[in-house]
Amino acid sequence: MTQALAGQPKPPALRDRDIIYFSCIAWSPMKARPQQIAIQLARENRVLYVEPMLSVATRAARGFESLFPRLHQVGDRLFVYRPLSFLPFSLRSDLANRINKQLLGKSVQGVARGLDFIRPILGVSHPQHEVLIGKLGECFSFYDCHDNYGALPDPKASPAVLADMEGRLLAKADHIFISSQALLESMDGYRGKCTLVRNGVICSHFENGADCEGEPPPELRRIPPPIIGYIGTLGGWVDGEALGFLARSRADWSIVLIGPMHDRSLARRLEGSPNIHLLGTKRYEDLPRFVHRFAVGLIPFKLNRLTQSIDPIKLYEYLAAGKPVVASDLPEVRRFGDLVSIYHSHEELLELIEVNLKESGAAGATRRRRVAMENTWEQRAAGIASALSQQFRTLSNSADEMERGA
Q1: Residue 338 included in any domain
Q2: How far apart are CA 151 and CA 234, in angstroms?
Q3: How far apart are the first and last CA of the chain?
Q4: CA 349/CA 354 separation, integer angstroms
Q5: What confidence tens digit (pLDDT) does each residue in 130-143 have?
Q6: Cβ distance 92 to 158 under 8 Å?
Q7: What distance in Å separates the CA atoms of residue 373 and residue 140, rounded to the nearest whole number?
Q8: 193 and 271 assigned to the same domain
Q9: Tally of domains in the chain
Q10: Domain residues for 353?
Q11: Which of 61, 220, 299, 323 has the fewest beta carbons under 10 Å from its own?
Q12: pLDDT, tens only, 92-137
């Protein structure tokens, strides 16, 4: 197994290469792992970030213009491509997925040619992208695995079909990056080409809290402190019962949830509580202004197959802002020891928040920020770049040996 990343970042080991990264997340106001990795790799390389294909209905709901493909430049070396829409049932049918990805591959080939990409590195972030491996003239490929996709609560997906797709992808990919120890341990037969690259944070973005002094964001002005806050997607993995218990038990606390709502039953459970505030999605650039007004940062996840494999990005962001963190008992959270308060029941959740609300002084915040600085996206990307550079060296050595043998 390739060694996990730790310690200081290495000098950039990958320069002036062309990289195509097929993401499962749109280039949106929120910045998750795929966007952060693309941003970091684009510091020394050209990167084409390909958004996921969306259905015609979803595109139409977002406006007429979104129905059409679009290429736009978001950085000196970073391009984002919004592809055409797709046929339904891509996550339930191998045939539908192959048709869609053939169309996607053809359109991306044209975009890459227009950008003068030459023998690119191909990165994919979802099992359904396995069809694309070997189809874009890439020099080699990698799979950025950051979720247990078979455990995601997606009614549009067939777990069996996804498992078959991922099995083929694991066999095809030249290298695999894994975001958590639990995911790594599930890679039976493929650990030799895996590198553990956990999630991270841009410390400077959160520790300074740009514009955090003075007036709070308008959405928070009428919300009384203390604010018990959460940032991130609100999906079926969020424990609505725990949040409801908090709201009923402490009517004087304000529970602020920031992020897109992806679960209707969770929304129905939370909307009736007067001290639960659903603020929706906020731009990544604005998140520090909200997080710096949290008294405590929450990670209220259910414990199941999906969350056992999660390395929560919000954990690093709370720490970078110096905020106390209260979280459910997730394997990746346990690594931080007494730096994070871990609860095992609703009553313990309540108790630990109360304990953290009484914290005073700057020592705790300084310690949390120091740990966040050991877990930056710059460091994570340096590890990815190093592994990809090693792949180049391996390929070059193989080519030299073949030439000498001839």
Answers
A1: yes
A2: 16
A3: 32
A4: 9
A5: 999 999 999 999 99
A6: yes
A7: 32
A8: no
A9: 2
A10: 203-372
A11: 61
A12: 888 888 988 999 999 999 999 999 999 999 999 999 999 999 999 9
